[in-house]
Amino acid sequence: MGLAERYRSVQERISRAALAAGRSEQDVELIVVTKTHPAQLVIELAAMGQLAFGENRDQEAAPKAQEVASAVPNAKWHFVGQLQTNKVKSVLRYASAIHSIDRPSLVKELAKQLENQDQQIDGFIELNLTDDENRGGVNSADLESLTEQVLSVPRIRLLGVMAVAGLGEDPRQEFEKALHLSQWVRKLAPSATALSMGMSEDFEVAISLGATHIRVGSAITGPREYSA
Ligand SMILES: *Cc1c(COP(=O)(O)O)cnc(C)c1O
């Protein structure tokens, strides 16, 4: 299967999963995660009508976004990986959404750089669904205070939460946990209803549980050159 076939096949699976869940496919935004793949692949997907792309490392994303910008000025970049504070300034040059807001120091740096650059951004609070503190995402115990902090920064438009299902875990149970935690966020921010969850292996389950943004890489791009 080539890129176009894989892309169309995933689109069909999204439609079917939305239909089965009694949802409109328009309510599920597909973000194609292009990490490890060249700008050319992004440009080819854009020619098929895909304009939302995801990356997880600034070192790779910054030059790629710049290369894509001349061919596809309306491409939209979602930053989905763990974000170091010293990369915030660079990421804000190309990203329109950050899915990995997970700690106070990051919110502080975002606030500072957004102010400096007189800019706004869409944000998702990333949930850590595991007991492993080293994983990205905020623990449930710190979720409420982090949400309050994000809401104190008007330049971040909080859309909702993001979650990655743990390796070897049942994605349905993982996404149910995310849904449950999302309710805490919505108590403080009623409009933050978005759910960024679902990847190549589990996006249909995620759609059945209400995902509004799915981040699909290898099912569309093909296997990655190296693990990222
Ligand atoms: C790589 C990545 C994806 C896409 O993963 P696939 O399994 O290739 O679909 C989604 N979300 C995040 C945060 C990622 O790092």
Name the beta content range.
15-25%
Number of strands: 8
The ligands found in this model are: pyridoxal-5'-phosphate
Order of secondary-structure elements? HEHEHEHEHEHEHEHEH
Helix run count? 9
**Mean pLDDT across residues:** 96
Structure in words:
The protein is α/β, with parallel strands linked by helices. It has helices at residues 3-20, 39-47, 58-71, 88-91, 104-116, 140-151, 171-188, 203-208, 218-221; strands spanning 29-33, 52-55, 76-79, 95-101, 121-127, 156-163, 194-196, 213-216. It is 43% helix and 18% strand. Helix 3 links the parallel strand 2 (52-55) and strand 3. Helix 2 (39-47) packs across helix 3 and helix 6 packs across helix 7. The two termini are 23 Å apart. The protein binds pyridoxal-5'-phosphate. Pyridoxal-5'-phosphate is lined by residues 33, 35, 56, 80-81, 164, 199-201, 215-219.
List the helices and strands and how they pair.
Layout: H1 3-20, E1 29-33, H2 39-47, E2 52-55, H3 58-71, E3 76-79, H4 88-91, E4 95-101, H5 104-116, E5 121-127, H6 140-151, E6 156-163, H7 171-188, E7 194-196, H8 203-208, E8 213-216, H9 218-221
Parallel strand pairs: 1-2, 1-8, 2-3, 3-4, 4-5, 5-6, 6-7
Helix pairs in contact: 2-3, 6-7
The site of pyridoxal-5'-phosphate has 14 residues, from strand 8 and helix 9.
